[in-house]
Amino acid sequence: MIKDKIKTCNYCSNSRTYTLTDEEELDSNFCFDDDTDYSSQVFFVSEDKNHRIMHTIGDGKPPRLEFEFWNNNFKRWDTYDIKFLKFCFNCGRKIIEYPEFKTYEEKKIAKLKINKR
Q: Can you give the pTM of this predicted structure?
């Protein structure tokens, strides 16, 4: 099975958008879920430098924004929210290759609505 070509950019490319050649199709070791590459870059830092937004790709998850705060007790950054992107912010491509994360977002929103009551 040769996967349909999905045009991507450097920000939204992952193993699920990869197109197999005939030679790679015969390689039984290749798996579309082997998205272990991980890249993260600072998108925004607050004036007090205690909060930041990271743009992250890879690690088996869709492109996302990770909202983090500086935990002074442990001297590290901790994530307090993740927003999975529906579109690539660089090329505008609709992110369709991770349908399982759509339900994650819906559950997270439903939980927030229940907690606000």
A: 0.67
Please give the backbone phi and psi of residue 12, each rounded to the nearest 5 degrees, phi first: -120, 5
pLDDT tens for 62-107 read 888 999 999 999 999 999 888 888 888 888 988 888 877 766 666 6
d(CA 27, CA 56) in angstroms, rounded, equals 29
Instruction: Give the start-to-end residue ranges of the domains of the chain.
Output: 15-107
Q: How many helices (H) and strands (E) does the chain have?
A: 2, 4
Strand extents, DSSP E, the chain: 38-45, 51-58, 61-71, 76-84
Q: How confident is the model at residue 2 (pLDDT cuts 50, 70, 90)?
A: very low
Give the Cα separation of 26 and 18 in Å (integer): 15
